[in-house]
Amino acid sequence: MSLGISILVFFIMLFIGTPIAVCLAGTGIIWLLADPSIPNLVFASKIYGATDSFAYMAIPFFMMAGQVMEQTGITEKFIDFAKSIIGHVRGGVAHTATVAGVIMAGVSGSGNADTTAIGSLMIPALVNDGYEEGFAVSVVAAAGSLGPIIPPSVMMIVFSNAAGYDVGKVFMGGVVPGLIMAIGFMLIAYNYAKKHNIGGWKFGGWKNVGRTFLMTVGALVMPFIIIFGIVAGVFTATEAGVVACVYGILYGIITKSLTLKGFLQGLADSCVAAVGPMMIITYSSIFSYMLTRMNVANMISNFCVANITSEWVFLVFVLIITTIAGCFIDGMATMLMLLPVLSPVVTIMNIDFQHFALVYVMGLLTCQITPPVGNLIYVAASIQKTPVKKVVKSIIPFCVVMILVIFLCIFIPELVTWLPNLIYG
Q1: For the residues 26-30, what does the mean pLDDT come to?
Q2: How far apart are CA 209 and CA 90, in angstroms?
Q3: Sign of torsion, CA 173 176 180 183?
Q4: Could you tell me if 401 and 188 are in contact, meaning their C-beta atoms sit under 8 angstroms apart?
């Protein structure tokens, strides 16, 4: 009875627009009050235990690294480099935004940060080049969605810590699907440009490519240091976040592009950005505990084992659940709520956890650009105050590409297991 009341309260609060962290906290409080057999200290102990993790310190550090690099003006250099490579192809302005998204993904690990950084420069350029405003916003939102898929990724760090799985393997598993998605986004842009007779920029020559590469090479080194350090076991994900911060600060000082004001602004922005994920991590622990105590995990495990006999069918089932839930609930909250329920099924059915991990995480990340909750749509639309209703139709092809790539990963598991197996053996 208390479970039903709590879930009802959760959806009522969600429906009236209550922030997801408050929904989770309110649901937990209602559940504790409705069930007198549960000690009151459970609430405090669970929220403390959820954040008492060295691994979660990586979240503010990676966000700080991304903000510091942004304060150095590196986004403009990344865009210039992307423009020099592919800007001359039909639809080159849109392709430049996507390639910049791939490069930025290796710096911040945050979709919101990448979308804001790219969008402020590329949305006006796209509109000026003849793209409809809604499509321009969709291109940037899709490019920003690559941030948490291509490593490093805050979402993958949280997943790995919650699941007790190697973060390096999850990082490496996201590389190939992320690149395939980027190619898919560029094909959509090419088709749009061809249909509307939109060209590209003039090719500046290979000398220009070399010049723009040299301008960005200092920043491009950072993601390689992070990934190599984690994969080689030199440092943990949290230590990698610290290394990224230190590298970003040194880069800014050496290139004389980071001011004290810029550093302090980056510090403030990263602190604010880290609060949301940490609140969700904190309060989702109560919700997960509630589901476990009420035996929901066992009920779902028994249902899946009795009715699903194939690994592929189960992963499609996972994709459907995450896509539907992610359309209405924040992706990180959904991940932490459903993980304790789905993990036992993966173990019982003897499914490759690497395969499950990437399908699960990518399914949730797709919802960054799916209406009505897709946060990156709102972030990108707010840059030029574009009405979201103008974006909904244009974003659908990008959502379809992401879902199709996940289906490919379900039926061709090597797309998410080949690179981790090659590196880790």
Answers
A1: 79
A2: 18
A3: positive
A4: yes
